[in-house]
């Protein structure tokens, strides 16, 4: 997906690297849809879906990048999305 399209819908962005489209609570989980800019193709963003168990550090992440599809496990895009979500949650608590 193109980053310029994602940037228009974002509720929060961390620099020009990570865009959070939505964050919602589903039962005991917090689900966030994020887009993280590719390092090789700068105009392209990969979708990252994060599910965090509220009150714990446990999370599940899924990314569309080729690295995640090939290796599995957390990729650098998931890590960046988690950092952005943490910053977004800090801002929400202050307000």
TrEMBL record:
GO terms for molecular function: zinc ion binding. Keywords: Metal-binding, Zinc, Zinc-finger. Residues 46-86 form the SWIM-type domain. It comes from the Archaea. Pfam families: SWIM. This is Zinc finger, SWIM domain protein.
């Amino acid at each position: 997906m193109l980053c310029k399209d994602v940037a228009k819908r974002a509720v929060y962005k961390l620099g020009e690297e990570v865009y959070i489209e939505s964050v919602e609570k589903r039962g005991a989980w917090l689900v966030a849809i994020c887009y993280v800019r590719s390092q090789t193709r700068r105009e392209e963003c990969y979708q990252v879906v994060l599910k965090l168990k509220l009150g714990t550090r446990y999370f599940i992440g899924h990314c569309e990048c080729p690295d995640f599809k090939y290796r599995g496990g957390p990729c650098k895009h998931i890590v960046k999305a988690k950092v952005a979500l943490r910053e977004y949650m800090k801002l929400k608590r202050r307000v």
